[in-house]
Specification:
317 residues, alpha/beta, TIM Barrel, 36% helix, binds S-adenosylmethionine
Length: 317
């Protein structure tokens, strides 16, 4: 897929194959993070299901008792054939990206003809027994802001939770501009316009989405990272496919864990490096972006080509 808000360019610089962490290396890093208190791992990308035999990685991660929340974000195209194996391997939560219910829109916007496969993937996840299946929808003004209610109905009809995401100026979004951002306020207003008053839900734990309920109890979420960033409560670290540990989606520099592993550092030494970096963390990338007087694209294409780790698709959305 080549979603216009993430990978709109004709050509990309890819990370060299030998730089990509093996499943065994990812598993080892996950174990070190688990030892430092991490309990949740989300596999994202890029497209995680393009990685051959992903259920094998899930099974490795599931062996760490401390990692009690394993989740996947996927475009859904290959989910139909893998959902059962992923569940059997220990995955419990799936988020599928679905920006439109109209195949022709997806063909134009994401250069993909595989809309039916995405729907089949969603249905396969439900059939496989996943207790939590969510839908991620990036709302872009003039593209799919007219489908908010239809997408909510689609989710509601299948017992899924819809999550509407504001268009973010992340690396890779080379066509971003503020006027295309359909804000949380506008999203909630569109839903309230159809269903009546919408009630905000109070959350006991941190999550990126603010959740709301309709009068009939239907719950949906909005991720307002662009107009109402939540850096103060963000507790996420990111590991790129090639082993760079980043403290923020917008972070410029990270810690090269792959080098540490391949140079023979033991787990205690790697954990010490991670802990030192994390405890000195001051990143608040989205808030800094929101404070800019003139807000344009984060990285132009030349900057992304110079370092593909700046791409959303390498650091994980
Ligand atoms: N390939 C997988 C997928 O399609 O879900 C996982 C990676 S994708 C980068 C993860 C999520 O980030 C998707 O839900 C996608 O819609 C979202 N995303 C990508 N670019 C975005 C942007 N510029 N603003 C907001 N969300 C974005």
């Amino acid at each position: 897929m080549r979603c216009r808000y993430c990978m709109p360019e004709a050509e990309y610089v890819w990370l060299p194959r030998e730089s990509i962490l093996s499943f065994e290396e990812i598993d080892r890093v996950a174990g070190i993070f688990a030892g430092l208190g991490v309990s949740k791992v989300r596999l994202t990308g890029g497209e995680p299901l393009l990685r051959h035999d992903l259920p094998k990685l899930v099974a490795l991660l599931a062996r760490h008792a401390a990692l009690n929340d394993l989740a996947l974000t996927t475009n859904g195209i290959l989910l139909g054939r893998e959902a059962g194996r992923l569940y059997a391997a220990g995955l419990r939560r799936v988020t599928v990206s679905l920006d439109t219910l109209r195949p022709e829109r997806m063909a134009e916007f994401a250069r993909s003809q595989r809309h039916a496969d995405v729907i089949a993937g969603i249905d396969a996840a439900v059939a496989a027994g996943f207790g939590s299946v969510k839908l991620n929808t990036v709302i872009i003004r003039g593209y799919n802001d007219d489908e908010i209610v239809d997408l909510l109905e689609f989710a509601r009809g299948r017992g899924l939770e819809a999550r509407f995401i504001e268009y973010m100026d992340v690396g890779g979004a080379t066509g971003w501009s503020m006027d295309q951002v359909f804000s949380q306020r506008e999203i909630v207003a569109a839903i309230a316009g159809r269903y009546g008053p919408v009630r905000p839900l109070h959350q006991s734990t941190w999550a990126p989405a603010e959740r709301f309920a309709l009068a009939d109890g239907t719950v949906f979420g909005v991720i307002a990272s662009t107009t109402a960033p939540f850096c103060r409560t963000c507790d996420r670290g990111r590991l790129t496919a090639d082993g760079t540990f980043l403290l923020c989606l917008y972070g410029e520099r990270g810690l090269d864990l792959r080098e540490l592993l391949r140079l023979g550092a033991d787990d205690t030494a790697v954990a010490a490096e991670i802990a030192a970096l994390w405890s000195a963390r001051t990143d608040r990338g989205a808030e800094e972006r929101a404070e800019l007087a003139e807000r344009g694209v984060l990285h132009r294409i030349e900057s992304l080509r110079a370092d593909p780790r700046r791409e959303m698709h390498t650091r994980g959305g």
